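Moderator note: this is an archived Q&A kept for reference. The question asked for a predicted structure of one protein chain; the sequence and the answer are reproduced below.
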Amino acid sequence: MFVLIFSLFFIWFFLKFFLVPSPCVGASSLQKLAYPKDKTKYIQCRDEFHYEIFTCPNGGEYNDQTNSCELLSPIIDICEQEKPCLNDGHCLRLSNSSFKCNCRQDWTGERCETPLNSCVKKPCGPNADCRKLITADYEQDYVCVCHAARGYGLSCQEGV
């Protein structure tokens, strides 16, 4: 009798503390449960102690709210798709529908569309040097140094 009681206690103790309990204990037959280690998988209970693990088709994830596999919306890179930053600005994707442009020196604006000075538009022409001017007295904010520094003006077609 003692051996029988000891054997039953040992079996109970072993089952309780050493075997992994079924995730389907308390669940109904054919109930689906989220697989805790991988969102792309789910558990299909056959009964309280027997179950199978399935993978969602097409790379979907199991949604335990709807009890079904759902396809994930693809990540849209708005920076690659729309190329919203102008004048060699660098685009940072914040979400599928928003971005931020980091502008190069001498450019500003939401899309790097506004020059900070006129020299960035290269108004002087080839083989000329554009110099920024800081002045409140004149409308222009640059001067062109032309013909190997032998002339200057608003473009290098005119010399002074």
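Archived answer notes: Residues 47 and 137 are 88 Å apart (CA to CA).
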